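Priority: low. Protein: Lactate/malate dehydrogenase, NAD-binding domain protein. Input follows.
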Amino acid sequence: MKEAPSPDSILIIVSNHIDVLTYVAWKLSGFQLQKCRGVSHRLSSQILMVICMFWFEKLQPYLNKV
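Result:
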């Protein structure tokens, strides 16, 4: 099992073929299943925006250090 680049990192896969790509990304990455999420094309742009804003706010203190 591969070690994740950061223990707090997650994968978000956005694709039309969500089942296959999420499974392959999960298997190749070595991430825990709980840290690999798939989002299909049926997801409305508003929901995606809320998800992105949530993570942006959560990661904001760390972005200035990069």
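The first strand starts at residue 11 and ends at 14. The chain has one domain: 11-63.
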